[in-house]
Design a protein that fits this description.
mainly beta; 5-stranded mixed β-sheet; 43% strand
Length: 79
Amino acid sequence: MTLWEFHIVFPEGESQEIQHRLAIGDIVDCNGCPLPLPLPTNRMLAYRVSRVRTLEERGLSRILHYLDQLSATELLEFT
């Protein structure tokens, strides 16, 4: 039996467990929840999934989603 864990890794190196898998390019909030597009404003804290890594151990698979913080200028294309 294999257990699955999903984590988001912030640019500073801190990580947080989430309950679901994300795809590369997804725009998420600080809790790892995908943001609905179009965004209401470009003045919000948002991250883009830049890389996904899988660590496998005996009986445990850990999926790490690395995040990059988006600037207000970058968020303009999603408003």
